[in-house]
Amino acid sequence: MRWPVALFLALVLVAQTAAASVRLKDLVEFDGVRGNDLLGYGLVVGLDGTGDGIRNAPFTEDIMANILERLGVNVTGEQFRPRNVAAVVVTATLPPFARAGGRIDVTVSAIGDASSLLGGTLVMTPLNGADGQIYAVAQGAVLAGGVAAEGAAARVVQGVPTSGSIPLGGRVEREVEFELASLSRVRLALRNPDFTTAARIEEVVNRHYGRPIARMLDSGTVALDMAATRAASPAHALSQIENLTVSPQTRARVVIDQRSGTIVMGEDVRISRVAVAQGGLTLRVTEEPMVVQPNPFADGQTVVVPRTDVEIEDQPAVGMAELAASTSLTDIVAGLNALGVAPREMIDILNSINAAGALHAELIVR
């Protein structure tokens, strides 16, 4: 069987992870403890002739004029033709409990026809939240993630030079009000909702405190009674709860990536007894035109005579291979290996087994 080594490693990792104990902080999100997306529109200056063409990006001229006027420079009626500036969109995430004066990372992306932001500097840009309020201000040197070079007849681009980042380039100016200490009830939201996992979280938390603290509301939510924890504050209680370990339960899945030919199976995948035959027929038609010349001193013409070669190749099949009703991932892998096919062909086999109703797992095709 010609399976890639990476595929076997992926199968082993999936099987081991499914049975491992995982901390609650890696399984759930605490209700209310979340980040907020920020967005701004700014200008990058100091580029080495790789900025926006003003004729193709007139909005760059508008923002540049606004910045200069705020600095006391009158540019009314003037014509700008620089190639060292670029209009950009600035994005960032305001983390939970961020305080005024704190620093955050920002991402800068060109929106005009600039070819590179390498070496540029972002001019002070306000970052707005979904409510339109300014929560941070970004400024600093842009670290572009690529390079571009071009000549008269060729151009080479490595990475994405029109996008970059500014580590700690944003300063928090406004805090998001959230009083964690005043909460009497906190909900845990499972990243992958599952009734079994939620019930196990409830059991682990209650066993840790020796009294009913947690209560499962549904497959994706577990409620915590903060007062019953008798901790100094909800923050103290959550610091203990988030480090408790649980063995999560996941749905049986088979994930297929058609672009790379990768197949990943979960440990709980099962199949019913099924027989599979796999083979192929290849028809190859090739054209090799032949040029025919007339005899010397003859009254004739040079013509092209078509020549067609048709070849039929019947690939050897494995016949009818039986896959027994499997009770483990090892049995399934061994049964599929018996077919002796490549991963690309294995994708078609798994699709056919699923269509026959013999694959007892969620089939995800990317």
TrEMBL record:
Domain of life: Bacteria
A Gene Ontology BP annotation from the UniProt entry: bacterial-type flagellum-dependent cell motility
Gene Ontology molecular functions: structural molecule activity
Keywords: Bacterial flagellum, Cell projection, Cilium, Flagellum, Periplasm, Signal
Gene Ontology cellular-component terms listed: bacterial-type flagellum basal body, distal rod, P ring; outer membrane-bounded periplasmic space
Coiled-coil annotated residue ranges, if any: none
Leader sequence segment: 1-20
InterPro entries with a match to the protein in the record: Flag_FlgI (IPR001782)
Pfam families linked: FlgI
Location in or out of the cell: Bacterial flagellum basal body
Chief localization: other
PANTHER family the UniProt entry points to: FLAGELLAR P-RING PERIPLASMIC PROTEIN FLGI (PTHR30381), FLAGELLAR P-RING PROTEIN (PTHR30381:SF0)
Protein function: Assembles around the rod to form the L-ring and probably protects the motor/basal body from shearing forces during rotation.
Family: Belongs to the FlgI family.
Self-association and partners: The basal body constitutes a major portion of the flagellar organelle and consists of four rings (L,P,S, and M) mounted on a central rod.
Protein name per Swiss-Prot or TrEMBL: Flagellar P-ring protein
Organism expressing this protein natively: Rhabdonatronobacter sediminivivens
Gene name, Swiss-Prot/TrEMBL: flgI
